[in-house]
């Protein structure tokens, strides 16, 4: 593996100061396109994490006392700082994560927009007034901050997911400790610089880099944490829930997915092909909401498969920092490459046929590259259809009628996103009712909006993010019963 020419360093951000891990330990960060080491970041300990939690706890009371509009002002300053050099941010994201530059630019811009969007809620936070059974009573519901939130972030949209956790938490009066993935921590260091530039009070936002087993577990099990919010795999969600159970704290889990895409015989075939391809190759297939398995009506299976294989085989991939005109970069890591290669090998052993892709380009010894792949002859129940793939690999299964397609789609431990392609309104309406997923996309690629509510069913998670409902996940309720004298003011 090549060594870096100039190794950059990022630090933790605790109580308003950039600091190293107390023991000075670091981990190295790799560019997955080249294998080159590009930076080192703190490998933090439990004590580093506790220090950040203490700082967040100390800052929380005063932060919550500010009017929401004042907190929104700080959020807007973070967004403005992030907008100063979006190209630099995009390159940092592409360098460590491997996504194509165009998508990193979208991620950098969307992150700032998301923070501004959450700031807009400052004048819209609402409680409730409920009627009482007593004539002399008002029942009021307030929403208060939870306290200190632990935010654990994955590597696939690392920059945006920080904002998804930070903006609603801070707007509602919480303070936060963020832990990025050890694979993609550099962009989190850039986020902390924007927070410092925005002049947030010390301790309101803290960043602690380190492993899930140490920093992540401390965030989930420390008694001063009020809610732990994790985006990651189901295994991690289980471990975090177990640790959080000790203190009975709230968990917010955004976990894995295996999204079905149903193609009906009446579908606009070109739209279905393009949208499903877009949803499969974006970020090299490493997206929780990506289309993961296609169910196509037998009558149009040949037509769909031919067009889909052609579209997937035209997918261009390479090093995002070298080539601008790409559809995909590399996998984020060698482990991720091995995982997906293993899934494809297993599928072939189970009887699947490789229609395009299926093996690495022997001419590319460096970088974790893998081609867009289509697998035919797949059946419900095969691991490649059942499990989350997290790579640009699409298994195709055929069905006889809508009942069968919906049964197949719902037959999953996951329940995050789903899609259906049809020109028949009755079919679309049945799908809205019978597809048991947190999100269904009808005649479009899978990708949620910031004003929606991204929340999975079954093992895809608990709670959710975005929009009004995502904002209120960061609050707890306080019911107040106000009894008053009905004759008040009339007494002599
Ligand atoms: P991961 O679970 O390996 O890691 C996610 C984060 O959890 C990292 O910061 C990691 O260090 C931390 N972590 C790991 N073990 C931990 C533990 N025992 N305790 C506490 N923290 C721990 O996931 P990943 O590989 O970074 O991301 C890919 C996964 O995330 C996929 O399954 C994907 O579907 C899911 N994901 C879901 C969403 C969503 O919105 N539902 C979005 C993005 C990614």
What's the short story on this structure?
The chain has 492 residues and is α/β, with parallel strands linked by helices.
Could you explain the architecture of this structure?
With 492 residues, the chain is α/β, with parallel strands linked by helices. It has two domains: 272 residues, Aldehyde Dehydrogenase, Chain A, domain 1; 184 residues, Aldehyde Dehydrogenase, Chain A, domain 2. The chain contains 15 helices and 23 strands. It has a seven-stranded mixed beta sheet with strand order 15-16-17-14-13-19-20, with helices on both faces. Helix 7 packs across helix 8. The longest helix is centred in the first third of the chain and has 20 residues. The protein is globular, with a radius of gyration of 24 Å. The site of nicotinamide-adenine-dinucleotide has 31 residues, from helix 7, strand 11 and helix 8.
Q: Percent of residues in beta strands?
A: 15-25%
What CATH calls the topology of the largest domain is Aldehyde Dehydrogenase, Chain A, domain 1
Count up the domains. Answer: 2
- Terminal CA distance: 91 Å
Bound molecules: nicotinamide-adenine-dinucleotide
Whole-number radius of gyration? 24 Å
Major beta sheet summary: 7 strands, mixed
- Which class do the helix and strand fractions yield? alpha/beta
Quick check: average pLDDT? Answer: 96
The amount of helix comes to 25-40%
CATH homolog superfamily of the largest domain: Aldehyde Dehydrogenase, Chain A, domain 1
Q: Given the C-alpha coordinates, what overall shape results?
A: globular
> What multimeric state do the chains show?
single chain
Strand order of the largest sheet: 15-16-17-14-13-19-20
Number of helices: 15
């Amino acid at each position: 593996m090549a060594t870096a020419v100039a190794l950059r360093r990022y630090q933790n951000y605790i109580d308003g100061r950039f600091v190293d891990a107390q023991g000075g330990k670091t981990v190295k960060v790799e560019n997955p396109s080249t294998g080159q080491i590009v930076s080192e970041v703190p490998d933090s300990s439990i004590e580093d994490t506790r220090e950040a939690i203490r700082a967040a706890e100390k800052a929380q009371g005063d932060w919550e006392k500010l009017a929401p509009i004042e907190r929104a002002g700080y959020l807007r300053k973070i967004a403005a700082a992030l907008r100063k050099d979006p190209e630099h941010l995009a390159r940092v994201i592409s360098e460590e994560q491997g996504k194509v530059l165009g998508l990193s630019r979208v991620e950098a811009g969307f992150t700032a927009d998301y923070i501004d969007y959450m700031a807009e809620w400052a004048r819209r936070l609402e409680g409730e007034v409920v009627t009482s059974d007593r004539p002399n009573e008002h029942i009021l519901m307030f929403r208060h901050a939870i306290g200190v939130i632990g935010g654990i972030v994955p590597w696939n949209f690392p920059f945006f997911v920080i904002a998804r956790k930070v903006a609603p938490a801070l707007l509602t009066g919480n303070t936060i400790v963020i832990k990025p993935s050890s694979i993609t921590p550099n962009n989190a260091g850039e986020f902390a610089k924007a927070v410092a530039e925005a002049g947030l009070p010390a301790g309101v936002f803290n960043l602690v880099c380190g492993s899930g087993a140490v920093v992540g577990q401390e965030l989930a099990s420390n008694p001063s944490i009020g809610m732990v919010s994790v985006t990651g795999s189901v295994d991690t969600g289980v471990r975090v829930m177990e640790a959080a159970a000790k203190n009975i704290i709230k968990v917010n889990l955004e976990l894995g997915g295996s999204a079905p895409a149903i193609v009906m015989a009446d579908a606009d075939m070109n739209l279905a092909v393009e949208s499903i391809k877009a949803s499969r190759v974006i970020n090299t297939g490493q997206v929780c909401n990506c289309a993961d398995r296609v169910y196509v009506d037998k009558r149009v299976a040949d037509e769909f498969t031919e067009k889909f294989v052609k579209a997937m085989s035209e997918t261009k991939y390479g090093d995002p920092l070298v080539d601008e005109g790409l559809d995909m970069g590399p996998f984020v890591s060698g482990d991720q490459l091995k995982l997906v290669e293993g899934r494809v090998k297993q599928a072939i052993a189970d009887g699947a046929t490789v229609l395009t892709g299926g093996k690495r380009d022997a001419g590319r010894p460096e970088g974790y590259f893998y081609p867009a792949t289509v697998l035919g002859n797949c059946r419900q129940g095969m691991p490649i259809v059942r499990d989350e793939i997290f790579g640009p690999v699409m298994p195709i299964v055929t069905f006889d009628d809508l009942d069968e397609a919906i049964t197949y789609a719902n037959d999953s431990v996951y329940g995050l996103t789903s899609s259906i392609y049809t020109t028949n309104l009755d079919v679309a309406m049945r799908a809205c009712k019978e597809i048991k997923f947190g999100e269904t996309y009808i005649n479009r690629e899978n990708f949620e909006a910031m004003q929606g509510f991204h929340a999975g069913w079954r093992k895809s998670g608990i709670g959710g993010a975005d929009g009004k409902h995502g904002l209120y996940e960061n609050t707890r309720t306080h019911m107040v019963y106000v009894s008053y004298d009905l004759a008040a003011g009339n007494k002599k």
